[in-house]
Each structure stands twice: as C-alpha cells, then as structure tokens.
C-alpha cells in the first residue's frame, strides 16, 4: 500500500512544556527546620525535555523558528514534612495566549539504605488559558531512585493526552477529511538520568532523557486517498544537558547561585529548531 508522510506541525504540538528549567524542580535539599521553602530564578532560555518553550514562531513558509535568547522568570515553593511534600512551580512561556505555565505536584521521598533513596509522586502541568484550539494540560505520575549524586526517574502520562500532541493529530486529520479518536497521548513515558556532582562551591550537572511517545501518537496514520495513507506520527526523541552551577552565597547572600548549561535534543529534522542545542544561563535564589 502506498504510504506518504506529513509531519504534525511542530508549532501545534510544541506544547511539551513543564517544570524543567530544564523542567521538573531539582531534588529538594535536606528537609529544613521550617518545612516551607521558596525559589525564584531568571533564565535566558526555558527548555523542557530539550525543547524550547519560549521565543518560538513560524516564518512565511510555515517553518518553526526560535530565538536563541528569550528570558523567562521562574519560581515556586515547596512544603515538606516526614517525607511528604507538596509544591508549585511556575514559568513564563511562549506558546499559549497567557504565556504562563503552572505546575502542581505532591509525593513522598525517603531512604531504604544509606545513600540510597526513592521518590514517588504526581505532577500536574497546568496552563490557565482556556480559549485555544489545543489543551496542553497534562498529568504524570513518577518514580525515582537516587544514589548520592545520581538519580534515575521515570514519568508516565496518565491524562488522556500528552501536552496536546494527540489533539494536534486530530486537527491534522480533520484538515485532510479524516479522523482520529481516543486518548492518544496517554501512556507516553519519559526516562531520565541526572547527575549533580559537587566540587567545593561548584556542582557539575549532567542529564540525558528519552521521551517515548505512546503507541497511538507514534503510529498514527490517516487516509490519504486512492488506497494510500498519510503518516502523522510523532517521533520519540532523546534530550541532553551538560553544565555547571556555582554557589554565590559567599558574595551575594545565602541561597544565590548561577548556572551555565548546554541543552538540546535530537530529531531536529522532525521538530525543527525547538530541539536545537542552546547555551542557557540562569541566576537563582533559594529561600
């Protein structure tokens, strides 16, 4: 059977957003005497799972374009006690009308042996603007295992869609006189390995991740006419980060740090410049 290909427009599906800076909040420090902490930061570029979340547009040819620098303001708070925690993290973004992402999470973390820990929880990515064609809201459950400076984490999508990718596929299908149905993004998984190795006031940061799109997202095809099909599948991809964080507390006050990192992802031929590697600078304050 003849099979042609038509990519789901990355400008539509580019809602892969969330709290990463590269997104999910960094593992919490040892539990403080007062269980409520807060953080604020400004960064030259917000990427989530290797993909740009701001400074994105399209040119006259409909191709996705991005800016190498598009500052974002980020911050949130965490409450923890007896291993349980709840928190909120927020960031300015560039692909919804409101330009705001709000993440809410809760979980439990502990140790099962010296230097070996675990963390389980649920995370809701929330985008306040409702007047839009695609709903980016996504819910994931996650589990992590940690050892000193290493952490392996898996996140699993339990909501019906994954950052609007399934809805984007349905819009493409409708535009071609076809249809797709069902909870298309559910069961998308994200695997990540993180390393944060301290050397005095400097911490070396490393990350590699893999987004495995759900089978329905990956294998989606629509009727192309004359017995043919059109491939509207979404590609799974790897992302990476390498960088350093420097503690400025001695000169700028408690909790102040500056970070520099190179962050990006593969499959640029499918997703376009949102997966392009970027140098990102971030100034943070923990309170």
Radius of gyration: 20 Å
Q: Given this structure, which CATH class is correct?
A: Mainly Beta
Largest sheet: 12 strands, antiparallel, barrel
Q: What is the number of strand segments?
A: 19
Mean pLDDT: 87
Spatial gap, N to C terminus: 61 Å
Adjacency order of strands in the biggest sheet: 2-7-8-9-10-11-12-13-14-17-18-19
Q: Please give the share of residues in helix.
A: under 10%
What is the CATH third-level topology name? Porin
Order of helices and strands: EHEEEEEEEEEEEHEEHEEEHEHE
Structure in words:
There is one protein chain. This protein is mainly beta and 287 residues long. The protein has a single domain (3-286), classed as Porin (Beta Barrel). The protein is built from 5 helices and 19 strands. The protein has helices at 10-13, 165-175, 215-218, 249-252, 268-271, and strands spanning 3-5, 36-43, 47-48, 51-52, 56-58, 64-66, 72-81, 84-92, 100-113, 116-126, 138-147, 150-157, 189-199, 202-212, 221-225, 228-231, 237-247, 256-265, 278-286. The strands form 4 sheets. It has a 12-stranded antiparallel beta barrel. Strands 1-16-15 form a 3-stranded mixed beta sheet, with no helix packed on it. The protein is globular and about 70 Å long. Mean pLDDT is 87; it is low at 1-5 and 9-29.
Summarize the structure.
The chain is mostly beta strands and 287 residues long.
């Amino acid at each position: 059977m003849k099979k042609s290909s038509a990519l789901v427009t990355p400008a539509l599906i580019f809602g892969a957003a969330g709290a990463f800076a590269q997104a999910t909040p960094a593992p919490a420090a040892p539990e403080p005497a007062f269980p409520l902490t807060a953080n604020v930061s400004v960064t030259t570029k917000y990427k989530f799972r290797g993909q740009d979340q701001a400074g994105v547009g399209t040119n006259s040819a409909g191709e996705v374009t991005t800016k190498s620098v598009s500052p974002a303001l980020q911050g949130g708070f965490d409450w923890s006690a007896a291993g349980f925690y709840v928190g909120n993290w927020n960031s300015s973004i560039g692909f919804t009308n409101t330009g705001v992402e709000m993440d809410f999470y809760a979980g439990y973390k502990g140790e099962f042996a010296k230097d070996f820990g675990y963390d389980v929880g649920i995370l809701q990515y929330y985008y306040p603007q409702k007047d839009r064609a695609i709903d980016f809201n996504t819910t994931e459950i996650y589990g992590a295992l940690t050892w000193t400076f290493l952490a392996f984490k898996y996140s699993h999508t339990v909501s019906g869609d994954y950052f609007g990718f399934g809805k984007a596929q349905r819009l493409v299908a409708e535009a071609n006189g076809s249809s797709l149905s069902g909870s298309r993004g559910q069961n998308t998984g994200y695997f990540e390995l993180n390393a944060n190795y301290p050397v005095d006031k400097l911490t070396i940061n490393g990350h590699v991740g893999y987004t495995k799109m759900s089978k329905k997202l990956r294998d989606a095809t629509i009727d192309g006419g004359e017995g043919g099909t059109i491939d509207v599948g979404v590609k799974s991809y790897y992302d990476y980060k390498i960088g350093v964080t420097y503690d400025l507390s001695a000169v700028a006050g408690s909790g102040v740090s500056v970070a520099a990192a190179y962050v990006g992802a593969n499959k640029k031929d499918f997703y376009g410049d949102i997966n392009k590697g970027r140098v990102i600078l971030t100034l943070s304050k923990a309170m």
